[in-house]
Design goal:
The complex is a heterodimer of chains A (278) and B (619). Chain A has 278 residues and is mainly alpha-helical. Chain A has one domain. Chain B has 24 helices and six strands. In chain B, strands 3-4-5 form a three-stranded antiparallel sheet. A two-stranded antiparallel sheet of chain B has the order 1-2. Classes of the chains: A mainly alpha (278), B mainly alpha (619). At the A-B interface, β1, α3, α4, α5 and α11 of A face α18, α19, β5, α22 and β6 of B.
């Protein structure tokens, strides 16, 4: 419990380091040197000094709510409670970002928020099915019990793990599923109207989402935490590799990929496992 | 006890009569207000009594019901001939023929014709609170629309409540047919209330579609008498485990699907929106469509685990997803609500047909919260229509600047259907966890997929609407809450409060109030316990601090949104890349989704036939 609280409180720092490391990794993949590891934190402090420009207070406030919501949903996940509840809490935090994005009359922000919802339409069923897969293997929905389970979920539900890996880009807004940010077309989507310390909040929330998303990967190793760490490293590398080598899909392709490829993959695995168990 | 249950049927009728004959608006309003305390008190009296209660009725009542059946069907036939509607006339003739046949074969056995158990009382509660609030709301609504026809309208609504109370307490299938068709009559009268061309057309459509449900019930009686020699719910339920044939049950299930406006029979419920808004409110929440999940829950112990139940799961799950998808393409606010009702009715019946105690608990939670929330949303739709002249998504743009309270209520209503920690989320959560136990069968796998996908589609839909409403140009220059008539506040605020507090105390609510109902529906209670605010299920728990945390997060939003302004920060216009853009923005219309409509309808027809033919074992 204390560990969960400490981890949650530190999650912006962890997420910041992950983000800094990611920028280096991506740069190396592209043959560049890249920024220093602490660059996200330098950005963080620089943003604090900048003058904030806001459209209206409600919008700026929703940026802060997004940070609080994400932070709370991460605690729900780490505190060892029900994994499905944690998944649905993520939707709650997303709601703040989306409603905030919708609340200004900016075309980019509105399109971005709509795409943010479409991201959710794509990845959330996969997450729910992954939770069902973990339940089938470990016999519990409680995160704390999954983390102490003797079973090795990845051995029983490899296809579920694969589809979770392939859906990570859409949770983290990475290419090919970076529609909601899409810097070249909608200039960051729902983030566009935030600035100064309000952008700070949204920016930090994104770091927390890193911890949130990769923790799901970690769960697939059950009680073997070293394997979990390896899986996280591997998936981190893979997500960045995919990010570097692919171009953006449109939203229909994204939803179709998730619904028609990843969900069937998951379902086949679950059915085979259930049959084998009987 | 019998007398109290009888009063629950007769008192609304009496009040309806009083409302109908009283010449002054205030008096009518008074009688309508009276229905809330009286019905609540009577329901309370029944619920503390000894249940289940089997009531034997005198023989002449049977004759009266039969006579009433004939009168009703002749009236339908008359309507069909009067408006030259082929389907209505033919279906009434067919029903008359079947009814004569039923009367010919019906064995006369002694037995209770009325059955009042916890499920019935559960429905009484919904009628007594949500239903009467809608009637109260209707008095004000009609005052703004057409005072001269108010008495007619409100008395039909009150009468409808009595009919609904009667319909959920019958045991005899022939009586159930009579009440089923009476609700059809009530909806027919209410939908054509405005008497313009489109109202009559939609009313006739509702009439013939619901008559198909009536035909199905009559066929169910015929087959039940043929195969089992019985025609009462209790007798069918007691044959659990050694049913000779599923045919009667599949016909009953079909009638539930028709009444519940499941695809492809969804058009009658969509057509109901041409009537005054209280009609939609009452059809969608407390009465009419709720007969569908009620009937499935009644039958769930006998159909549990059969092929029929599995096909019902697939059919209703398919409706849950596809009705949500079709709702995305709509731009009329009431149509969006109607599609989402169809969708959630699918989920209620899905959980009902799963039939395990936890699933039944989820189904009851869905029925309760959906009734409350849909009544609230339709009432707010009426408020928007009457006070702010907004019917379409285009009209509700930036509504928050004009009507902050209405927007807040609608947002609470929409959010309560998708996100943590509201009651409908809890039901969805219980469903997914329950379905995870049976993943070796395709039907349960598909149920989990349908619930997951349908849930996110509904979230997409609701946030799309909330996003349009909450859009603002700039800071509130001079913020003031809109002035709503007292009656509107009186009928909506209790529903909002129930949505919030019912969700906050969801653990107590489900473990102590709803679990006894579950115990009587499926003979064993669901394995849920309440520990403070924490809801503990068999495999997991929803902690009290999670519920409170989510509520705190949600509740500070409106406070800050309306009252807190950041000072010392510069205000700018939205960034538009330096271009001069007209900032009247709409939202996605999901035109691409409408192309799947023919496919969806074909698939749903196929599933209907499969449910009937394979589920009933007709082959």
């Amino acid at each position: 419990m204390t560990l969960a609280l400490v981890l949650t409180l530190l999650s912006p720092v962890i997420g910041g380091f992950v983000y800094g490391f990611e920028r280096i990794l991506r740069a190396r993949m592209q043959g560049r040197v890249g920024p220093p590891l602490l660059q996200p934190f330098y950005d963080f402090f620089k943003l604090l000094e900048k003058r904030s420009l806001i459209v209206h207070s409600f919008h700026a406030f929703m940026g802060i709510m997004y940070l609080l919501g994400t932070w709370f949903s991460l605690y729900v996940l780490l505190s060892g409670g029900d994994i499905l509840v944690a998944i649905f809490f993520h939707l709650l935090s997303l709601a703040f970002l989306v409603v905030g994005g919708f609340s200004v009359r900016s075309p980019y922000s509105i399109i971005g928020s709509m795409r943010e919802l479409l991201h959710m339409v794509a990845y959330e069923p996969v997450f729910v099915l992954a939770a069902a897969g973990l339940y089938l293997v470990t016999g519990t929905f409680q995160v704390s019990e999954i983390l102490h389970s003797d079973q090795l979920p990845i051995l029983y539900v490899p296809l579920v793990f694969l589809s979770l890996l392939l859906t990570l880009p859409s949770v983290l807004k990475k290419s090919p599923f970076d529609l909601s940010e899409a810097h070249q077309e909608i200039i960051g989507g729902p983030e566009i109207e935030y600035s100064g310390k309000y952008y700070e909040a949204v920016y930090t929330a994104k770091w927390i989402e890193y911890v949130y998303a990769f923790f799901f990967v970690f769960l697939f190793a059950g009680g073997k935490w070293w394997l979990g760490a390896l899986l996280v490293l591997f998936s981190f590398f893979l997500v960045n590799l995919i990010d570097n080598v692919t171009a953006r899909f449109n939203f229909r392709q994204m939803v179709a990929f998730h619904w028609y490829i990843l969900i069937p993959l998951t379902v086949i695995n679950l059915m085979l496992l259930a049959l084998w168990r009987n | 006890m019998e007398k109290v249950a009888g009063a629950l049927v007769l008192v609304p009728w009496l009040l309806a009569l009083l409302v109908f004959i009283s010449p002054w608006h205030r008096v009518r309003q008074f009688f309508t207000f009276l229905s809330l305390p009286i019905l609540t008190f009577l329901t309370y009296k029944v619920s503390v009594g000894n249940l289940p209660l089997l009531v034997e009725t005198p023989n002449w009542l049977n004759g009266l019901v039969t006579l009433y059946d004939f009168l009703l069907l002749f009236y339908f036939l008359y309507q069909g001939l009067k408006f030259k509607d082929f389907l209505v006339s033919v279906l009434s003739l067919f029903q008359l023929f079947l009814l004569v046949w039923v009367l010919k074969v019906l064995p006369h056995k002694e037995g209770a014709e009325l059955l009042v158990d916890r499920l019935t009382v559960f429905m009484y509660w919904i009628v007594a609170t949500v239903g009467t609030l809608i009637a109260i709301y209707a008095t004000k609504y009609m005052e703004q629309e057409d005072l001269s026809r108010e008495n007619r309208f409100v008395s039909v609504l009150l009468w409808f409540l009595g009919v609904m109370n009667f319909a959920v307490s019958v045991n005899n299938l022939e009586w159930f047919f009579a009440l089923f068709e009476t609700t059809t009559l009530a909806s027919y009268v209410l939908i054509r209330f405005r008497w313009d061309e489109i109202s009559v057309k939609n009313a006739l459509r509702a009439l013939w579609m619901n008559q198909i449900g009536g035909v199905a019930i009559l066929l169910a009686i015929l087959f039940a008498v043929k195969y089992y020699g019985v025609y009462r719910f209790t007798e069918i339920l007691s044959m659990k485990g050694h049913l000779a044939s599923m045919v009667p049950l599949s016909f009953l299930a079909i009638s539930a699907l028709v009444k519940g406006a499941q695809l492809p029979f969804h058009r009658w419920l969509l057509g109901a929106m041409v009537a005054p808004t209280p009609v939609s409110a009452i059809l969608h929440s407390a009465t009419m469509v709720k007969i569908a999940p009620y009937l499935i829950l009644r039958l769930s112990p006998v159909i549990k685990g059969t092929l029929l139940a599995k096909l019902l799961i697939i059919t209703t799950g398919f409706v849950f997803v596809s009705a949500g998808l079709l709702a995305l393409t709509q731009s009329n606010f009431k149509k969006i609500l109607a599609y989402s009702t169809i969708s959630l009715l699918g989920l209620m019946m899905l959980t009902g047909s799963m039939g395990s105690p936890t699933a039944v608990l989820a189904s009851l939670l869905l029925i309760l919260f959906h009734a409350v929330v849909k009544a609230l949303l339709f009432m707010e739709a009426g408020v928007m229509e009457k006070l702010f002249k907004a019917k379409y998504i285009e009209d509700i743009k930036r509504l928050v600047e004009r009507a902050p309270v209405t927007v807040l209520f609608i947002s609470i209503g929409f959010m309560s259907m998708t996100i943590v920690p509201y009651g409908i989320f809890v039901a969805k959560w219980l469903t997914i966890e329950e379905a995870s136990n049976f993943l070796s069968h395709g039907a349960y796998i598909s149920s989990i997929i349908f619930v997951a996908i349908g849930g996110v589609i509904l979230s997409l839909l609701y946030f799309k609407v909330i996003g349009v409403m909450t859009r603002k140009r700039e800071e509130f220059v001079r913020f003031r809450l809109e002035r709503l008539p007292f009656v509107y506040l009186f009928s909506t605020v209790p529903l909002v409060l129930f949505t919030v507090f019912g969700s906050l105390f969801i653990a107590r609510l489900s473990a102590e109030l709803i679990n006894p109902v579950v115990a009587q529906v499926v003979d064993s209670p669901a394995p849920v316990k309440a520990a403070g605010l924490t809801l503990v299920t068999g495999v997991s728990a929803l902690y009290g601090w999670q519920i409170i945390g989510a509520f705190l997060l949600l509740l500070i939003v409106p406070i800050f949104a309306y009252f807190v302004h950041f000072s010392g920060t510069d205000r700018v216009f939205p960034y538009t890349c330096g271009e001069r853009v007209d900032l009247t923005l709409g939202t996605y219309n999901f035109f691409c989704v409408s192309s799947i409509e023919p496919f969806v309808e074909t698939a749903s027809v196929a599933l209907f036939i499969l449910t009937l033919v394979l589920g009933g074992g007709l082959v």
